[in-house]
Amino acid sequence: MTEHATVSPEWVRGAVVAAQKIPAPGVPGEYGDAADVLRGIGLIQLDPLTRVSTAQRLTCLTRLPRKHRAAQVDAALWPGETPVAFEAFTKVACLFPLQDWPLMELRRRAFREQVRQRYADTFTPKLREQISEVVAAQPRGVQIGTIESALGSARTTGWNWSQVKQAAEFMVRTGELVITARDGIVRLFDLPERALPAGIREAEHLPPDQLRADLARRAAGSLAVMTVNDFAHHYHLSKHDAAHGIELAGLVPVVVPGWRDMAYVLPELLEADVLGGDGIGPVKEARLIGPFDPLLRDRRRALRIFGFDYTFEAYVPKAKRIYGHYVMGVLSGTELIGRVDLWRSDGELVINRIFPEPGIAARSVTARAKAAAATLSRQLGITLRLPAS
Asked: Nearest-CA neighbor of 277 among 336, 328, 355, 339?
């Protein structure tokens, strides 16, 4: 039987948190702006809910110096003239660094096959050609409403998508269109040959096995310690592709006591002498973690690593909610020690309730939750309103 290195759950927590490069107070940190954050972690999940702030702002602000402000995030992610990111889908809408366009070619190929097999009669070559012609006529990309008007289509309202909207979104998934810019909060559809540098587009033609290996190394750099299922969930890959990519990438298998599946890490991670779970950290270093943050977006992974059982309750009927409409985790050191139900209202960040995790002293969690909320409120440029005692 092959011997594998064994790492402790505490070591795993330390490695996973360290990979996020969350700076301590007064420290410049690894990242200078939100584009740096995206390039570092490789993927930022998007979500339109703004009860506290947008998903991309919360994710980036956690990893930026505390003097960084929310208004700076979107400007760095969608800078206008020179794109730094593209929007695409894992299972949900996400933002990726521009240089990772080639790595997502496997997903685009899979979706092209789905279109060919299941949607050929609906999303016809003629309709896709008409959409491409409208987009090509707009040198800086075009809003979906403009495409719909040009083709005499019904307009999209909310989740009631027109056929043109559906086709355009399918074309983003296949790579026929790309979204690298926004007009305010509105996404702009563009042609890949116009929006993407030639070198990046050429790299998508690398052999599939090289793309699988590079994608596995990319995920391991962000997740630090991952199972095959973690990798598959992160990029919405088949389990077969994920396992094959890990093998091709030369990742090192490790055993984590209590885990059912084998974990994998980059070889250099085992050689590093800087990791290990530090437990609960100082009050002033605590941070709030959003529901779509890389540390929480895979709920099963968060439960396995942190013992943090998280359910997003915004769409749960109010009477059935356990914690609240929009709940953020409290990260202190290498532990998720509690959660906070909060919302943004009339220029204030309002804390409704603070919930300690089992076994963690309420006083300790409350102090850290308030400190973390104060940091976030300053970054959002609003005041903090504490719960009534």
From this structure: 336
The tens digit of pLDDT for each residue in 93-145 reads 999 999 999 999 988 988 888 877 787 777 888 999 999 999 999 988 999 99
Fold of 102-195: Arc Repressor Mutant, subunit A (1.10.10)
Residue carrying structure tokens 């300690």: 356
| Distance, CA of 241 to CA of 254 (rounded, Å) | 20
Q: For residues 389 and 335, give the distance between their C-alpha atoms in angstroms, rounded to a whole number.
A: 26
Q: Is the dihedral of CA 139, 140, 141, 145 positive or negative?
A: negative
Question: Residue with structure tokens 């076994």?
Answer: 359
Matching CATH number, 283-385, of 3.40.50, 3.40.630, 3.30.70, 3.30.450 = 3.40.630
CA 369/CA 5 separation, integer angstroms: 36
Q: Lowest mean pLDDT: which of 131-145, 201-215, 267-281?
A: 267-281
- Contact at 8 Å (CB) between 169 and 179? no
Domain parsing of the chain, residue ranges: 102-195, 283-385
107: which residues sit within 8 A by CB, 6+ positions away? 88, 89, 90, 173, 235, 236, 237
Q: How many CB atoms lie within 10 A of CB 219?
A: 27
pLDDT digits (tens, 9 = 90+) for 155-166: 888 888 899 999
Number of helices (H) and strands (E) in the chain: give both, helices first. Answer: 16, 13
- A 10 A CB-CB count for 42 gives 22
Contact 52, 292 (CB under 8 A): no
Residue 322 burial class via C-beta count within 10 angstroms: exposed 0-12, middle 13-18, buried 19 and up:
exposed
**Residue 218 token pair:** 């990319």
Mean pLDDT, residues 207-214 taken together: 94
What is the C-alpha to C-alpha distance for residues 255 and 264, in angstroms, rounded to an integer? 9
67/31 Cα distance (integer angstroms): 12
Tell me the two tokens of residue 367. Answer: 């102090």
